Amino acid sequence: MSAASSGLLRKKRARDTRFENSAATREAPWVKRLVLSLSLLFFGVFLLLPLFVVFAEALRKGLEAYWAAIVDPDALSAIKLTLITAAIALPLNLLFGVSAAWCIAKFEFRGKQLLTTLIDLPFSVSPVVAGLVFVLLFSTQHGWFAPLLQSWDVKVIFAVPGIVLATVFVTFPFIARELIPLMQAQGREEEEAAIVLGARGWQTFWRVTLPNIKWGLLYGVILCNARAMGEFGAVSVVSGHIRGETNTMPLHVEILYNEYQSAAAFSVASLLALLAIVTLVAKTIIERKATAVDK
User: Fold this and answer.
1) CA separation for the pair 253, 259 (Å, rounded)
2) Secondary structure (3-state) at 207
3) How far, in Å, CA of 16 to CA of 20, rounded?
4) Band of the pLDDT at 92, cuts 50, 70, 90?
């Protein structure tokens, strides 16, 4: 048999073993169409339609009313606080996520399984419960640390520090959970080789580990930032809903909607929707780049 014939035979066998071409797993065309139609219907009704409604309602009274809602002092204060909170929470989560992933993926130590479990804690605890825990701990009236906070004249609950704490708690698993399986799959061989060749710890991290995890790290950062800006439950408990001071964008949207200012509420909500769209686009770009690197 010629080399060309052997190559064609191998390609045919590979093609025949694909899921959709296997007789054991092949589905009728109408089944594929039904599943695709249901998926597109779900996508349209639960994702595209709400997104369209947000922008339609935001622009219902015209661009002038839309812009007036955005530049309102309370709205600007909410936008500013949201950006400040994300700017503080993101570096903290970045530091924790990389450190935790490095320890779990590269080393063996007592309590490793416990640390892995604790990282998932915000996924299993309601954000509202997390907010109530922070109130119980840091309230200046009846919190566990109330005497200490009063002596130092430090206010955590119903202030910016409480909002940052709640946001950090809710978002800290995202970067770590993205990096842990990636670093475990990559193994330790490259780092061990670098150390054998004389590299120090920081040199190994910057020149070996970081280039290998950069796309996963960016992916986790994007998801963490999106969640930080859109967090509602925990922040709602610890903020006090003080307009112009402790309201983030989601809380400001809630207040406007409860006051029947629907156009203004949807105008501010459209900024969060734009953030979601930017997040999805960035996520898609990073996934493509990561796939291209793997190939």
Assistant:
1) 10
2) helix
3) 9
4) very high
